Amino acid sequence: MSFDHIFIAPKNWDASLSFYKDTLGFEMISSWGSQEEGRGAVLKGGGFTVIIAEEHKNKGDNAWVSGFNGQRPTIHLNVEDVDTAFQNLKDPEVAIIKPEDNHWAGRWMVVKDPDDNLIAYNTPKGN
Fold first, then answer.
1. Which residues constitute the domain of residue 51?
2. To 5 degrees, how large is the angle CA 78–CA 23–CA 116?
3. pLDDT tens digit sequence for 40-59
């Protein structure tokens, strides 16, 4: 597996975007959404990727039900096969989102560590 990105659900979209772009000098690679539907952006700086996104209106999207943890960052890891990673968990009960398809990357699952930090395993589309 390899590190992919950190996900942040910002308290204040404009302040967070400005911080990463203007203060830290990250480059915005892509963005989506609107104020009405929720905004998101992919930012890169120094080989590090941060995704910030507001809650969006897509009902039934597990990312906003249990795939993020308030304003605490979520670590995202790329794996060759999410389903195999799930089968290899010693305790499958740590998975708060069992393997499923998603709209932004391909397939994922999310586990919670003992301190309630979230770790998402992603298999990008095309893998």
1. 2-124
2. 40
3. 999 998 788 988 888 876 66
